[in-house]
Amino acid sequence: EKGIEGLIHANRGRASPRRTKDSLRDTIDYLYQEKYTGFNISHFTEMLQEREEIFMSRETVRGILLEKGSYEKKKKYPKHRSWREPMPKEGMMIQFDTSDHDWLEGRGPKMKLIGGIDDASKDVPWAQFAYHDSVKENMAVLKEIVKRKGIPLSLYVDKDSKFITTRHGGLHVNIKRDQQKTQMQRAWDELGINVIYAESPQAKGRIERLWGTFQDRLISELRLEGVCSLGEANRYLHTLYSCPGTTKSSSGS
Description:
Elements: H1 3-11, H2 22-35, H3 41-51, H4 58-68, E1 94-101, E2 111-118, E3 126-130, H5 135-149, E4 154-157, H6 183-191, E5 194-197, H7 205-225, H8 230-239
Parallel strand pairs: 1-4, 4-5
Antiparallel strand pairs: 1-2, 2-3
Helix pairs in contact: 2-4
């Protein structure tokens, strides 16, 4: 018997039988650099499975790209946490906000993404792209949320001037007379929605993380599909992507 030393000698220099074939490794590297540029590893692995019929684990894909030099390990920094317990039941609170970002990366017009996320379930009842972050566009999104999910008990919003009356200089005032209220505030009153104003972006942690996920994953998919108009972007968001109803919460690199 050769024993352990003999086995080591016999296998020295041989590739592991489990090692992915070089041609497939080259294909994965090419797809990552040429077709799926900018995708994070988790998202890229999903695209390999869904669109290329290449099935392997995220870690295997990551290892191939690290070896090829196409991907670098990212430093992890401690995340700021402004912790608040989520609501216990769906429909108790919707975090409502707008994300101003270059969603089409110069291929089309500047757009805003307006939407909400359920504080308990983390589902996205509705979101849509718009040219402007106007009262009209915010009303349209709120109307769609109510149509699909019913009237929420409360909304969690920032202190934008369309949501709250302000004095000159940005000092917020207590609202006492109906005529002082914004159009959005009057609509909330009519619907019986309690409104809570966030003190900072960190306080709106769930929807800020949602925007981060969309800015990572959705932008990459819009690029992949060649989307270059507001109408195309909304059609993709509403028919092919996970919104509305649920979110692809994985945003791992």
